[in-house]
């Protein structure tokens, strides 16, 4: 069992990175790897080379193949990210655009139906939201984000759905509220992964 934590926030002093450290500690003594996309300077731009590889289902750029190798080692993937405009940051979306591609994450062509390929992976989400849970519920933001990522990406590629644990009110003036949210989210995700380890 091996967990890959993927984070997208340019500020190493951010709440995202604090949560990342807390989650890494909570998952010990299990095998954990961190992919800090900002620190690693991952290029999220979908280029002509990416487009060719997508249509051909192979011959991927070297940086994409490196991410494939990381994900192939993982049994659990956790996406840790701040919510920007009710979705994930562009850096993380670009990582998914370039890495979760035809021929690797799934197979699709005009001659064949969709064949998901990430059945070995369980994907967990840890979104960090500025607003409170009431606003997310009233406006349907949580439901929209879950539909977009859980159904539109995780299900499409055949990955198992793990836990989704929002941290709300991350920009409020009550650090106690924020820390309670962090504690809850880290507990939910780590228990989901530890529970799988125990099976």
Automatic annotation (TrEMBL):
The entry's protein name is NAD(P)H dehydrogenase (Quinone)
What's the family? Belongs to the NAD(P)H dehydrogenase (quinone) family.
InterPro entries per the record? Answer: Flavodoxin_fold, Flavoprotein-like_sf, NAD(P)H_dehydrogenase_qn
> Upper lineage ranks?
Bacteria, Bacillati, Actinomycetota, Actinomycetes, Kitasatosporales
Q: Which GO terms describe its molecular function?
A: NAD(P)H dehydrogenase (quinone) activity
Gene3D superfamilies named among the record's database cross-references: 3.40.50.360
The organism encoding this protein is: Streptomyces sparsogenes DSM 40356
PANTHER family annotated for this entry?
Answer: NAD P H OXIDOREDUCTASE-RELATED, NAD(P)H DEHYDROGENASE [QUINONE] 1 ISOFORM 1
Q: What GO cellular-component annotations does this UniProt entry give?
A: cytosol
